[in-house]
Amino acid sequence: MDELNVNFFSCKKDMEKIFKQLQEEIHRIRLGSKSVVPLLEKIKIKCYASFFPLIEVATITIVDNMNITIHPWDRAIISYIDKAIIDENLGFMPTNKGESIHIRLPILTEEGRKNLMKKLKQKQKSKIFVRTTRKKYNQSIKRLKISEDLSKTGENRIQKITKVSIQKIDVLFFSKEKEILSI
Q: How far apart are the first and last CA of the chain?
């Protein structure tokens, strides 16, 4: 029975990991300045003979929904920040204004929305990963030396965990799709 509980726990943990990874990927599908800032914060800037996240070397300010300003604490590294943002290839170009960097996010057109929806649909593979994980743990349960009743109960419990995970994924997709279509 302990082996069965370990399987349940591991299955749930693996499916949560898939969901968290999906959340990060979907969050990268950019819409406005609030969704871009977390991406900017993580960009590694090469300065002072090391790499630092942008958030540790500059202040990131949201001016409005389509504009972001970055004020480095040391003006000497502004060109490094500029280059790092360009190299990250996030779909916009920074403007170096000497003391700060200004980012103007492009307005989302109908074609842009369709492209975002295509990107979103490509992320549906996470459901496949969840189902593959279910299959892996069902096979693991079958390999255990337990009664057939316990085996069926275990498979049913794995199915419930899978169903909950897929529902969470569907809710995440629906909310992002609604967000894309409403802007």
A: 51
| Contact predicate 71/57, CB 8 Å | no
Give me the amino acid identity at 156.
N
CA-based R_g, the chain, Å: 22
Using an 8 Å Cβ cutoff, are 45 and 94 in contact?
no
Maximum separation of any 2 CA atoms in the chain, in Å: 72
Torsion of CA 156, 158, 162, 165, to 10 degrees: 120
Could you give the residue ranges of the DSSP H alpha helices within the chain?
2-27, 33-42, 78-88, 110-122, 125-143, 148-182
pLDDT digits (tens, 9 = 90+) for 123-149: 778 889 999 999 999 998 888 888 888
Q: What is the pLDDT of residues 14-58, one digit of tens each?
A: 999 999 988 887 876 766 666 677 778 888 988 888 899 888 899
Residues 171/126, Cβ–Cβ less than 8 Å: no
